[in-house]
Design a protein that fits this description.
Elements (H helix, E strand, L loop, with lengths): L18 E4 L2 H14 L3 E3 L2 E4 L15 E3 L5 E4 L8 E2 L2 E4 L9 E7 L19 E5 L2 E5 L1 H4 L1
Parallel strand pairs: 1-3, 2-4, 3-5, 7-8
Antiparallel strand pairs: 5-6, 8-9, 9-10
């Protein structure tokens, strides 16, 4: 399925708060199910989202954009401790220059004609993660993103 470029479905409409309180599984499932049905972006506005520790959701073959307001602004976690938080990495366009700031990024736009900054990186797929440290750019696994 192709992504819909429509506006994100407001998460607050489903009773989901960004204040670090535990999110109801039923509310989270309802929101994500509707995002999947409408092919709407899954957008977490700035804040801390405390997900149920056993939460799982099958997006099936849907190509949904999952995004937030950036590192340190949108935090998804199953823990109350800051050291256990997961921040959604900033998206980058691989057809443009690499960001000036070191960090972990998520590939948003890729092409066979990538910018020379990324020429030493092997195949990078959409939504994969890259770590940038100075001139070193390397793909990293989701488990290393945290």
């Amino acid at each position: 399925m192709k992504r819909n470029s429509s506006k994100p479905l407001p998460i607050s409409t489903y009773g989901i708060k960004n204040d670090g309180t535990l999110i109801s599984k039923n509310n989270l499932y309802a929101w994500l199910t509707e995002c999947r049905r409408l092919k709407s972006p899954v957008y977490f506005p700035a804040g801390k989202y405390l997900l149920p520790v056993d939460f799982e959701f099958d997006f099936g073959n849907s190509d949904l954009l999952i995004t937030g307001d950036g590192p340190g602004k949108t935090i998804l976690t199953t823990y109350n401790e800051a050291s256990e938080n997961f921040a959604i990495p900033e998206k980058i366009d691989l057809t443009k220059e690499k960001p000036a700031k070191d960090g972990v990024y998520q590939a948003d736009i890729t092409s066979i004609n990538v910018h020379p900054d990324y020429s030493r990186v092997s195949v990078v797929s959409l939504d994969s993660y890259l770590q940038i440290k100075g001139d070193l750019i390397r793909p990293i696994a989701f488990s290393e993103v945290k």
